[in-house]
Amino acid sequence: MKSQWITALLVVSITFILVCCSDKKTPALQGRNYTGLLFGQPYYLDVVGDSANYTAQIDSIIKAYESCFSINDPKSVISRFNAFQRTDSMFVFNDSTRAFGIVYDLLRDYHRQCMQYYDPTTNPLKRAWMVANMNELGEPNLDSLFEFVGFDNAKMDLSEITEGDYLYKESHLRKADSRLEADFTALAAAVAMDNIVDFLKTKKVVQLKLRQGRNLITFGTAIDTMNVVPMGLGSDSADQLVRVVNRAFTYTTGQDKAKMIDVTYGYPINNEMVYVGVSAPTLSQSVVFAEAFMIMGLQKAGEYYTANESTDVQSFIFYQEGNEMHNASTEDFDAMIVQPDTIQE
Question: What angle do CA 180, 186, 188 make, to 5 degrees?
Answer without folding.
Answer: 85
